[in-house]
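Why do we bother with holo predictions? Because pocket geometry can differ from the apo form. Keep that in mind while you read this record for S-adenosylmethionine.
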Amino acid sequence: MNDPRLLSLDSSAKWRVPGRGSWYADARFATAAHATRDPRALAALLRGAGIALAGASVLDVGCGTGRLRAPLHELGAVWHGLDASREMLGSGAADPRRVQGELAALPFADSAFDLVVCCRVLHHLRDPHQLERAASELLRVARLGVACSFWDSASWPQLRRRLGLKRDEGPAGRVARPRAELARAFALSGGRVARFRARPRWLDQQTFAWIEKEHHA
Ligand SMILES: C[S@@+](CC[C@H](N)C(=O)[O-])C[C@H]1O[C@@H](n2cnc3c(N)ncnc32)[C@H](O)[C@@H]1O
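The structure, written out:
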């Protein structure tokens, strides 16, 4: 777990390409249905877990262009963002609540935030040890727990890939994993998956999980 090679993950390389931030902010989630899907899923996940966002401090790890900032703010949370890519942070980098940093070595104290959110990042971590490292860091800085998304291998899009009906992303592509593997990675650092939330699996591979930190203060 303390392998220095894991201290800097290579997962952010493609997000440092010039123009990536403006493409993500303007074109990646172009329709209203697409843009609101993750914020709604996240809110429903936390509501279902009985987690109140009003007044809670939230660290959004791999926050990118800060897409989740407004929806979380509307729910009463105090949002903070961290991303490895200055290109993705864009002009938001001047905001003291957004910091450039690395998921594998978060520059915050233990339990510094009530909750940690990590959306659309973990499927970029191919190596299980990188996932374990990330899980350990996300849990470390959270007081209550972590809400994250990942790609579920037991989903229709992934089955289509296995059947050769959908393009495989190759050895450097994004990775889907079983729910049990995600749960195991967090369990190693004292996290317990309390709930998963997904749209029907034949529609979407992206699944959200709420992971409680055991023995939280
Ligand atoms: C698909 S974007 C998701 C952005 C945001 N969470 C959202 O849902 O809109 C992935 C983001 O994760 C960031 N990222 C990837 N690996 C990272 C790492 N090791 N440390 C910090 N940020 C990372 C990238 O720079 C990129 O902004």
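The chain has one domain: 4-213.
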